[in-house]
């Protein structure tokens, strides 16, 4: 995204009831089950959901107490929590296949610590993190507000608020913002598609959603009514996995920065923290957010790369997009590596990732969320490196 000038930029989000997000939630439910039983369990779980059917597949290494029957039970509870008890997708009646098998010994050999060998990265790859000053969460504004609209809809639906009576779990949002001098100033259009009960009039759905969107956006940002699109194709009754097949990892732009910044090729959900696709992306966001929170720059992108089985990162790259306040980016790269051990072991220990904390990440974005010290979630959103960064650069 350009840092200056006037332009339009669009991001989308999807709700926890979207088929792909149902799949993400179930993959992270499996991960949490294993980590609760053994903090050092290995999991790479892919999920497919369709009409009254769930398939959990992939490889694991963990205690035998995590049985297929237990995972089926947890899967049903997660589907119920999302809100699906419909004829075409019901937590009670869906067929659930558990096709998980043991982790490949070839992969384990490269990742495991042994003798003088440190724990290696679970795969090769490039990971990115980003932060900017467009929102209090230090996230790009389009994806931030797209998430917030759906999250608010979910909160109201879950507590049975009469203002959203008849709305169902599957939903999508999309926001186009106008930027002036590189800063967001107004929404030029908003799109919300939401599943609903049969017989609910579309004008009524639009009337339900208008105050939610208006109260979520900053004052004065709401577009004119003709640019507020609700269920543009008409009724949306058949939704969720009954309406469309869902797969783990198909919403990585929704999970990260809404297209406003680069992201790596790997998805997050269902992967334990030895998989740097996930853990190093969290580390990149953590470092980028702390750089911006320390007021060293208005925007920051960080890239880290790894090779499978190798513990140390092959590269660390920092781009301040010309917004650094007299900051030497090479010095900043060195400083960040001194402040955080970027080996897989160092990342998971620094961010405390070997815990069952992942189901809440599966919807409404992995970044820009409020860290919860009690639950131990979203530790990568902390800004505890700010004092050290300021001291390193004399601020």
Written account of the structure:
The chain has 395 residues and is an alpha+beta fold. The protein has helices at residues 19-37, 68-82, 105-111, 141-158, 202-216, 240-243, 252-255, 276-293, 329-339, 344-350, 386-392; strands at residues 7-14, 42-50, 53-61, 85-86, 89-90, 95-102, 125-132, 167-180, 183-196, 228-230, 246-247, 299-306, 315-319. The chain has a four-stranded mixed beta sheet. A four-stranded mixed beta sheet has the order 6-3-2-11. A three-stranded antiparallel beta sheet has the order 7-12-13. β2 and β3 form a beta hairpin. The protein is flat.
Brief write-up:
The chain is an alpha+beta fold. It has helices at residues 19-37, 68-82, 105-111, 141-158, 202-216, 240-243, 252-255, 276-293, 329-339, 344-350, 386-392; strands spanning 7-14, 42-50, 53-61, 85-86, 89-90, 95-102, 125-132, 167-180, 183-196, 228-230, 246-247, 299-306, 315-319. Helix content is 32%, strand content 23%.
């Amino acid at each position: 995204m350009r840092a200056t000038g006037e332009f339009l930029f669009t991001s989308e989000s999807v709700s926890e009831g979207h088929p792909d997000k149902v799949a993400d939630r179930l993959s992270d439910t499996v991960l949490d089950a294993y980590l609760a039983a053994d903090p050092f369990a290995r999991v790479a779980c892919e999920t497919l959901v369709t009409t009254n059917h769930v398939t959990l597949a992939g490889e694991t290494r963990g205690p035998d107490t995590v049985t297929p029957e237990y995972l089926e039970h947890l899967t049903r509870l997660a589907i119920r929590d999302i809100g699906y008890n419909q004829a075409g997708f019901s937590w009670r009646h869906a067929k659930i296949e558990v096709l998980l098998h043991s982790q490949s010994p070839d992969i384990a050999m490269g990742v495991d610590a042994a003798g003088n060998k440190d724990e290696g990265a679970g795969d090769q790859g490039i990971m990115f993190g980003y932060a900017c000053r467009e929102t209090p969460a230090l996230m790009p504004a389009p994806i931030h507000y797209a998430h917030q609209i759906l999250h608010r809809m979910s909160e109201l639906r879950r507590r049975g608020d009469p203002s959203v009576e008849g709305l169902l779990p599957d939903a999508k949002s999309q926001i186009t913002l106008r930027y002036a001098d590189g800063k967001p100033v107004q929404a030029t259009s908003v799109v919300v598609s939401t599943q609903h009960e049969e017989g609910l009039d579309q004008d009524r759905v639009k009337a339900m959603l208008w105050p939610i969107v208006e109260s979520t956006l900053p004052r004065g940002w709401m577009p004119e009514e003709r640019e507020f699109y609700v269920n543009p194709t008409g009724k949306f009754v058949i939704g969720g996995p009954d309406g469309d097949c869902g797969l783990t990892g198909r919403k990585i732009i929704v999970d990260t920065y809404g297209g406003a910044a680069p992201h790596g090729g790997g998805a997050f959900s269902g992967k334990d923290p030895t998989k740097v696709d996930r853990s190093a992306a969290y580390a990149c966001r953590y470092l980028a957010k702390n750089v911006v929170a320390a007021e060293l720059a208005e925007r920051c992108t960080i890239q880290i790369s790894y090779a499978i089985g190798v513990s140390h990162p092959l590269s660390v790259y920092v781009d301040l997009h010309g917004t650094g306040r007299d900051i030497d980016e090479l010095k900043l790269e060195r400083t960040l590596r001194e402040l955080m051990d970027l080996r897989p072991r160092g990342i998971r220990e620094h961010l405390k990732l070997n815990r069952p904390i992942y189901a809440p990440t599966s919807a409404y974005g992995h970044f820009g969320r409020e860290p919860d010290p009690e639950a131990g979630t979203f530790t990568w959103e902390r800004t505890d490196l700010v004092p050290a960064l300021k001291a390193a650069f004399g601020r």
